[in-house]
TrEMBL record:
Record has Protein biosynthesis as a keyword: no
One MF annotation (Gene Ontology) recorded for this entry: glutamate-cysteine ligase activity
NCBIfam families noted in UniProt: gshA_cyan_rel (TIGR02050), PRK13517.1-2 (NF010042), PRK13517.1-3 (NF010043), PRK13517.1-4 (NF010044)
Taxonomy, superkingdom: Bacteria
Protein name, entry field: Putative glutamate--cysteine ligase 2
Length: 378
């Protein structure tokens, strides 16, 4: 048996929140991706921790600080985007976010010149090269390590809610895939990506990481790319479920829903109440259903195998979480989830634009760019 890895969980204040948002850099005229991340990042320099590099040169990531409220985190993202725009506008480059770019070709994208990215591509080859995808990650502070795994398992019961609401990758390489979130199923092709193991005890996680390090699967814990994972370095749970969201309104709505869920489950633990769970086979099926059908998914809601339309489940959840949102100061952002229910998730809006324009996907890119500028679904 290999030696377990020691995973020290950093001290973190309860229910602090941070958001990471991956943005595509697209040509203002053609709508295709532009490989200008290096130009942007060189101009930013090391003085702005809110703007970061990513795997591909067509991407920059904006990140918030450690915030008390989702509104505060959204304001951080907004400031970072303004700074990026000051550099991209003169280059005739627009910002866009969705789970995938509707028509760009993965084979034409350049990888950031960094050893960890080169190692990833060398190991994962065709699948790694195909990772032309964008996501939104939400970190929520956990004050007690013993809460991390129970809350992570409980979040899998609402996985489909978050994935359906954020689904924004129906197109891939110029074709409609028939999926609401093609990104979700592509990303899980990487080793250590996809749904997490439902460990009961921290020692099991440490044993797993020890095995992965010993056998050379990973060199560091952050190479475990689960959809929901502990982030020991920050003292958070990191939800990596959501597709790239086109607008700040959607990013903060999804972050508020995640923030409220974690706090809700944390409060249940304080009261000594058992947290909801689903068996791994139901979690797997829910991921597939929400990736395939999005807002039309009939999801499995509990360990007993009961089912419900995801939009009905979301509406019920919003009512249940309203008092939590008041407490966390994100009632307005949580209520914005209703805007997504009303106007449709991004994959639905993208398909509607494609239909109106006879299947022309440059019109879809133009609509995503316009939504990004507007900050809300159009």
């Amino acid at each position: 048996m290999t030696t377990p890895a020691r995973l020290d969980f950093a001290r973190s204040e309860r229910s602090t929140v941070g958001i990471e948002w991956e943005l595509a850099l697209v040509d203002a005229d053609s709508g295709d991706l532009r490989q200008v991340a290096r130009t942007v990042l060189d101009a930013v320099g090391d003085d702005d921790p809110a703007i970061k590099q990513e795997l591909l040169l067509n991407t920059v990531e904006v990140v918030s600080g450690v915030c008390r409220t989702v509104g505060e985190a959204g304001a951080d993202l907004s400031r970072a985007i303004d700074r990026v725009r000051a550099l991209t506008d003169p280059l005739r480059v627009e910002l866009m976010s969705a789970g995938t770019h509707p028509f760009a070709r993965w084979a034409q994208q350049k990888v950031t010149d960094k050893e960890r990215y080169a190692t990833l591509i060398d190991r994962t080859q065709w699948w790694g090269r195909q990772m032309l995808i964008y996501g939104v990650h939400v970190h929520v502070g956990i004050e007690d390590r013993d809460k991390v795994l129970p809350i992570s398992r409980a979040l899998l019961t609402t996985f489909a809610h978050l994935q359906s609401l954020s689904a924004s990758s129906p197109f891939w390489g110029g074709k409609d895939t028939g999926y609401a979130s093609n990104r979700a199923l592509m990303f899980q092709q990487l080793p250590t990506a996809g749904l997490p193991f439902q460990f009961e005890r921290w020692e099991q996680l440490e044993a797993y990481v020890g095995d992965m390090l010993h056998t050379g699967v990973i060199d560091a814990f952050d190479e475990v790319r689960w959809d929901v994972r502990p982030s020991p370095r920050f003292g958070t749970i990191e939800a990596r479920i959501c597709d790239g969201a086109p607008t700040l309104l959607e990013v903060t709505a999804l972050a508020a829903l995640t923030h409220c869920l974690v706090e809700h489950f944390s409060t249940m633990l304080d009261r000594g109440e058992p947290l909801p769970t689903v068996p791994p086979w139901f979690a797997q099926e829910n991921k597939w259903r929400s990736a395939r059908y999005g807002m039309d998914a009939i999801i499995i809601t509990d360990a007993a195998g009961n089912e419900e339309l995801v939009t009905d489940a979301v509406a019920r959840l919003l009512t249940e979480l309203a008092p939590v949102a008041e407490r966390l100061g994100c009632a307005q952002e949580l209520d914005s989830v209703r805007v997504i229910l009303r106007k449709g998730a991004s994959y639905q809006r993208q398909r509607a634009v494609a239909r109106r324009h006879g299947g022309e996907l440059d019109a879809v890119v133009a609509s995503l760019v316009a939504e990004m500028r507007a900050g809300r679904p159009l």
